[in-house]
Amino acid sequence: MNSTGSEVKSHTDPPVAVRWSDDGAGVDIIDQTLLPETETRIILRDVDQVVEAIRSLRVRGAPAIGVAAAMGLAVEMGRHVAEPTAAFAERLRVTTAKLRAARPTAVNLAWAVNRTAGTVSAVPDNAAAVLVMHEEATRILLEDREMCRMIGEHAEALFQDDTGVLTHCNAGALATGGIGTALAPIYTAAAEGRRIRVFASETRPLLQGSRLTAWELDRAGIDVTLIPDSVAAVLMAQGRIDLVIVGADRIAANGDVANKIGTYGLAVLARHHAVPFYVAAPTTTIDRATAAGEDIPIEFRDPDEVRRGFGRLTAPADVAVFTPAFDVTPAGLITAIITDRGILRPPYGPAISALGQDGRDQRAGESRAGTWEDG
């Protein structure tokens, strides 16, 4: 007990969502469909298992599925090193296409797969190609861990002691290769001894907020309160939310953001209540080839995820369901975008352009409109 008589929670390191299997020939993930009831790790040993895990949300979150897909490509190709060169090349093409199609909205998935496949163009033999892909997937994992850490550091000044934070879906360690995107600043602030009060929305219909974010933060000893999605407006009206921070699955060149369905509504509520609304994402989530949010492909989920949530019929069995997995928040509703390279301020088009095509800054950042703030 502490001095107030409340229980002092123990602190546990954030979970590891995705990693190599011990033998290096499989993708080791937490099966997130079983959380919070059971924390179970499974090993994926071929492309079909990886694709199924991504589509079924056993592994989820834009950075994490990018890492898992990159690893999955190396794992699948490792099963076929004895094939003739031409057959191996064709299998690489087919496997890459399968993985890219697993979920269309998250840009990290296609980016990671393309990057991993692209490393073998000048490699002389199949075994060497598999080794190169394995090494590249490992680099993507390690880079993602570092990007999460940097997001947390860049956002540090936004979190004072006793800050009330609302987050949506899960953009924590379960969604990345590191400590998360939207949750990275929370973990960083907590590690420095600040008290952060997190309100996690359930995130219907699949409850990523209640099943994953609440579990992850409670496990880490961080003060978290679970709320139904419809309670967010009440908390804002009561002045209990100091800021909203969410992740992103794709950021268009103009700063429009695709994220879990419900994000747009929170941004509208935040604007009405004068609550800052932040997006946290690695620069790999920025898609310069997509001009605006209206051009982002939106995935639609199985209607039975709504009609038969978690196995029980909760609606007429044949009722029509409109179930997009994501919505798009216009750039004009976003206070700032927190990246591993710094904080982007509006107008976002020039700020994103200043980062450079490889996600790295081309010039020193300055704290002014349309630029990025380095640190």
Describe the 3D structure.
The chain is of the alpha/beta class. The protein has 2 domains: 18-148, translation initiation factor eif-2b, domain 1 (Four Helix Bundle (Hemerythrin (Met), subunit A)), CATH 1.20.120.420; 152-373, Translation initiation factor eif-2b, domain 2 (Rossmann fold, 3-Layer(aba) Sandwich). The chain is built from 11 helices and 15 strands. It has helices spanning 47-55, 62-78, 85-100, 107-117, 126-154, 184-191, 208-219, 232-237, 263-272, 304-307, 348-355, and strands at 18-20, 27-30, 41-44, 163-167, 196-201, 224-227, 243-246, 250-252, 257-260, 277-280, 286-287, 326-329, 336-339, 342-344, 372-373. It has an 8-stranded mixed sheet. It has a 4-stranded mixed sheet with strand order 11-8-9-12, covered by helices on one side. The protein has a 3-stranded antiparallel sheet with strand order 1-2-3. Helix 1 runs antiparallel to helix 2. The longest helix has 29 residues, at 126-154. The chain is globular. The two termini are 37 Å apart. Residues 1-8 and 358-375 have low confidence and may be disordered.
